[in-house]
Design brief:
By secondary structure, the chain is mostly beta strands. The protein is about 0% helix and about 55% strand. It has one domain.
Length: about 110
């Protein structure tokens, strides 16, 4: 598992922290999508410097059946490819509301 960032839970149910991936180091806000009216829109929207750069969905893990957040970010610095990551708890580090962004390479 490769951690490419770190976020903490915010009081509005979102997350705030940093994405750190090779040439990219950006402050990010993962904000709950309050305008969601069906299952199609994402559960979260990801912003950096006021620009939307990705989205997040709450998924249920197959093996444990627990919910997790799966992220998809547009990364122009990588030739327009999407960067995928999951939020993983920092067990024993930084408290209960802290998460690593775990890189999830997609073929």
């Amino acid at each position: 598992m490769t951690a490419i960032g770190f976020v903490t839970r915010t009081i509005n149910g979102g997350f705030r922290g940093q994405l750190k991936f090779l040439p990219i180091c950006a402050d990010i806000d993962i904000v709950p999508n309050r305008d969601k009216s069906s299952d199609a829109p994402p559960d979260f929207r990801i912003f950096t410097q006021g620009l939307e750069v990705g989205s997040g969905r709450i998924l249920t893990g197959e093996s444990r059946g627990t919910d997790y957040v799966s992220l998809s970010l547009a990364v122009p610095g990588l030739g327009g490819r999407k960067l995928c990551a999951n939020l993983g708890r920092t067990v024993g580090l930084y408290g209960d509301g802290s998460f690593f962004l775990i890189w999830n390479p997609v073929d």
